[in-house]
């Protein structure tokens, strides 16, 4: 199935539903050497006059060096039939081996960045801002206690705000 480029303004899905409940698959690196993981925290909007996506990646995630190295990533919206694959990608580390094959997803190339061929929609993104969350970042201490205690203490997220360079949907 072929891809066609559309304007971000033409997307007709609810970002709260898509990010928070269906999840995005973020992929970084090339088709030949990449990693991907699910993300359920983020946002879409306009920042610095550009259509933008915001995602949060924990410091210890294997995908993070791929994003930091190239400054680019894709966000994929997958059909509900791929829910099990999203779960696999979110619960296994690429440090332990190939995630694409066991997940059932197929990496493809989108302008030099890896993405799942099975996606319904893809956002090709270029990082404009990267900042690490720290203990001092939290004005509401209950959020730090809830999300960064126990095994996750000291493993805060990095926030990425990225320009959406291209939006692709299946024809």
Q: Overview of this structure, please?
A:
This protein is of the alpha+beta class and about 170 residues long. It has helices at about 15-20, 65-70, 85-90, 100-105, 140-145, and strands at about 5, 25-30, 35-40, 40-45, 50-60, 70-75, 105-110, 115, 120-130, 155-170. It is globular. The N and C termini lie close together (about 5 Å).
Average residue-wise pLDDT: 93
Q: Report the sheet with the most strands, covering strand number, pairing sense and barrel closure.
A: 8 strands, antiparallel
The string of secondary-structure elements, in order, is EHEEEEHEHHEEEHE
Total strand segments: 10
Strand % is: 35-45%
Poorly predicted runs = none
Radius of gyration: 16 Å
Give the helix/strand class.
alpha+beta
- Total number of helices: 5
What is the end-to-end distance? 7 Å
Task: Report the principal-axis shape.
Answer: globular
Helix content: 10-25%
